[in-house]
Amino acid sequence: MKFISHILFAVPVPFFICCNEPIQPNTEKIISKNADTVSGTYGKYRDEQKGFSIAYPADWDTIKGNPVFPIIVVERDKDTADKFNESYSISVFPSEGRTVDEIIATNIELAKQKYPAAKMRKSEQVNKNGIDCTVLELVVEAKGVTIINYATMYFNDKNLYTLTFSMEEAKKKKYLEILDHVANSFEWLDTDTLPDTTH
Asked: What values do phi and psi take at 5, rounded to 5?
């Protein structure tokens, strides 16, 4: 039976994992801005209430979540010998007046307490739509498989939006292409006409 990583990056709940060593800067750009060259067909998820849209591979399953996790996207089970099911989700939490740095620092500190052996890197990036984001890369062992979780955090004046993509380390090259396309596709909808979702 395959498993899906339950390591999610979100605030205020401490789902983030890291290590007791200083966080290493990541010079590898996860978001390459060359996402238009990706192979495969993509659909577009739009959330008018939360004010964002994002792509998903058309041959993956989409699961309607809840107000905190509006969408979860899971690769269809193709290889029964494969122990891990690649997936990603979007979480949306109100920032509650905290700065980006405060939110990230809180997640990291709480995670250090729970998962002291994991490795992590951090980078500041910009997607092709000109949206600034922080990318946290986490490597952890789970059920005999090395899993990489990429949390791409986008902020607006009210909310933290986190794209958390989980993949097997051994298949990183294959799935980074999909992550690149998905992270680059994230865009804000016209929130001037949308209701306030922070309550």
From this structure: -60, 135
Q: Write out the DSSP string of 63-121.
A: EE--SSS-EEEEE----TT--B--EEEEEEEE-TT--HHHHHHHHHHHHHHH-TB-EEE
Residues 103 and 13 sit within 8 Å (Cβ to Cβ): no
Nearest residue to 165 via CA among 64, 78, 76, 91: 91
Strand partners, 73: 62, 88
Establish how many alpha carbons lie within 13 A of residue 55's alpha carbon, considering only the half-sphere containing its beta carbon.
Answer: 19
Question: Could you tell me the two tokens for 63?
Answer: 């699961």
Q: Which two tokens stand for residue 18?
A: 């890291």
Contact 56, 90 (CB under 8 A): no
pTM: 0.78
Q: In angstroms, rounded to a whole number, what is the distance separating the alpha carbons of residues 82 and 144?
A: 12
In whole angstroms, give the CA distance from residue 197 to residue 64: 17
pLDDT digits (tens, 9 = 90+) for 64-91: 888 899 999 999 876 666 778 899 999 9
In angstroms, the CA 167 to CA 175 distance is 7
Residue 179 is predicted with a pLDDT of 95
Neighbours of 16 (CB within 10 A): 28
CA distance linking residue 88 with residue 150, whole number of Å: 9
Closest CA to 162 of 69, 45, 27: 69
